[in-house]
Each structure stands twice: as structure tokens, then as C-alpha cells.
Design brief:
By secondary structure, the protein is an alpha/beta fold. The chain has two domains: 128 residues, Alpha-Beta Complex (Spore Coat Polysaccharide Biosynthesis Protein SpsA, Chain A); 116 residues, no CATH class. Helices cover 46% and strands 20% of the residues. The chain is built from eleven helices and ten strands.
Length: 305
């Protein structure tokens, strides 16, 4: 008999995707899926009268002093009926045992999170795959960070009121969650396709870099120093450095069960990361989900457009 408590799954999206259907199919009778959109005019709202059982549509409204994602998650947590919560995204495949697996892992470890592996769809995002494998996958695993695409916790695991108050004043939902929640990252990755155009990839890279900068400024300084040192190594001893960096990234890919030819791009990815990091930190605004944000400090966010 399944004794795990009823669960509220929060899925921010503006359209009904296969991920929504995948998660809905995994709900038990007492569970609920909250599909959270920005406005009644979003495409997913057209399905409000034709949603699967235990699926509710929640309209978060326009964000003011935070990102659209942070606003959606905050609204979803306030609307959720249950104490056990799951956050997820609409841009990766959720296999049939996805939700049950998170429950089993929570019973063993407490709050748990899976890991993203970002798969590029344009030349720049392909080139940056090794960088994201290092920072987004290995970095989250090694530093016990939560990923908002697949995280399970209960309300008693953190100070919910304080968290929600700060969530409505910032950009990164999982960046802030990692400050409030002791999470066990699972060595289980979900492939998330990113990019599509070089402009989209640049905007995402700015956001990723600024998330680290706002939440872990010391990590930004350390990352810049290490990146500069490794780039110098690559330039001074290119043949040797190519072999070392390629083997290192191939090992990281293998550690997380990923087989991708992009491990061969480790050498050029490291060289391009330093100027891209400088560019990302110099930018005053960035675009995410159709909105432009100005992020002056962790809790000083303006929606520009």
C-alpha cells in the first residue's frame, strides 16, 4: 500500500506540453498538478475546461518586483493544497516512474533534487555544453544545490513564509530555494534542450552567470580566477591542454551517464567562457520568457518590458 502523503506538483508554463500530460498521468487520486500560467490569455488557459483529473489551472498574474518564474512558483505554493511539494518544468521528458522515484528518494534522503544536463540547439549553446556540464550539472551535485526542474520537499523543511516573501523580490527560484533548503542532489540527470538562436543562448548565459553572482558572489570570483588560469593553460600548452580538458569533461559526462560528442568541445568552450563571463557580468538587463529584467542586487528586480 502506498503510504506517501498526497502531493502538489507545480508546473509553470504558458502552453500545454507533453510534459504536462506526462506528469498528469503519474498522479495518484489524492495528488494534484497545478499548471501555473501568467494570464488568462496564455494558450494553456484555453484548456481550463478540458483538463485531466486532478489538474488545476492557476493564473499567477504579471510579476512586478520578481521574475515571472518566481511569481508563478510563489503563487503555486500559496495555492497548493498539500504539504509535500514538487517543482518541475515543461521542457524535458518525465518518464512514467518520475514522480514515484522522487517519492522513494525523499523517503530515504529528505528533500531531493534531480540534475539538469543542458543540450544545445544552436552553435553557441552546443559549444557551451561542457561549461554547463561543469557548472549546472557537476556544480549543483557537488554543492548540494536544488534544481527547480525536479525538486521534492515538504513545507516543514524550510521557513515557507520567509521564503515566499523573498521569492517575490528576486529572479531565481531555485537559487533562493538552495539558500533555504538542505537538499540531496541525486546523480540522475534530465536532458533539457536550450537555445535555438545565438541571441537566446546569450540571454540565458547572462541569466545563469548573474544567478551565481547574486547568490554566491565568492563563487563568481573563484570561477573567474579558475577560468582565467585554465584558459591561460590552454593557450600556453594547447596540445596538452586539449587532451586534459577533453578527458576531464568526458569523465564528467560519464559520471552522470551522458554520452554526447560535445565533450570534445571542452577546449574551445573553456576559451570562450572567460569573455562570455565578462560580458554577462557587464550586462545591465537580460531577457527571460519574453520579459526583460534589470537585476541590480539579489532583492532588487525591475521588469523593464
Amino acid at each position: 500500500m502506498d503510504e506517501t502523503p498526497p502531493t502538489s506538483v507545480l508546473l509553470p508554463t504558458t502552453r500545454w506540453t507533453s510534459a504536462c500530460a506526462d506528469v498528469a498521468d503519474q498522479l495518484r487520486p489524492a495528488d494534484e498538478l497545478l499548471v501555473i500560467c501568467d494570464a488568462d490569455t496564455d494558450a494553456v488557459a484555453d484548456r481550463s475546461d478540458d483538463l485531466p483529473e486532478n489538474v488545476r489551472l492557476v493564473v499567477a498574474g504579471e510579476p512586478t518586483n520578481c521574475s515571472g518564474k518566481a511569481n508563478a512558483i510563489a503563487t503555486g505554493m500559496e495555492s497548493a493544497r498539500h504539504d509535500r511539494l514538487v517543482w518541475t518544468d515543461d521542457d524535458f521528458h518525465h518518464p512514467p516512474d518520475w514522480l514515484a522515484g522522487l517519492h522513494a528518494d525523499y523517503e530515504r534522503h529528505g528533500p531531493v533534487s534531480e540534475l539538469p544536463f543542458f543540450v544545445g540547439r544552436d552553435p553557441l549553446s552546443l559549444l557551451l555544453e561542457p561549461v554547463y556540464a561543469l557548472g549546472g550539472t557537476l556544480g549543483a551535485y557537488a554543492n548540494d544545490k536544488a534544481w527547480g526542474g525536479a525538486v521534492m520537499f515538504e513545507r516543514d523543511d524550510l521557513d515557507v513564509d520567509a521564503f515566499l516573501a523573498e521569492l517575490r523580490r528576486t529572479v531565481s527560484d531555485d537559487g533562493l530555494l538552495s539558500e533555504y533548503l538542505d537538499t540531496t542532489p541525486l546523480r540522475r540527470v534530465r536532458r533539457v534542450e536550450i537555445g535555438g538562436t545565438i541571441r537566446e543562448t546569450l540571454e540565458r548565459h547572462v541569466r545563469f552567470t548573474q544567478i551565481v553572482h547574486r547568490h554566491e558572489p565568492r563563487d563568481t570570483a573563484l570561477m573567474g580566477t579558475v577560468t582565467a588560469a585554465v584558459a591561460a593553460f590552454c593557450l600556453l600548452l594547447p596540445t596538452y591542454a586539449f587532451g586534459v580538458t577533453t578527458l576531464l569533461l568526458a569523465g564528467i559526462y560519464a559520471m552522470f551517464g551522458v554520452r554526447r560528442w560535445t565533450a570534445l568541445l571542452a577546449y574551445p568552450a573553456i576559451l570562450v567562457q572567460l569573455p562570455l563571463m565578462a560580458y554577462a557580468l557587464a550586462r545591465r538587463t537580460f531577457v527571460w520568457g519574453g520579459r526583460r529584467y534589470r537585476w541590480r542586487s539579489k532583492f532588487d528586480v525591475t521588469v523593464v518590458e
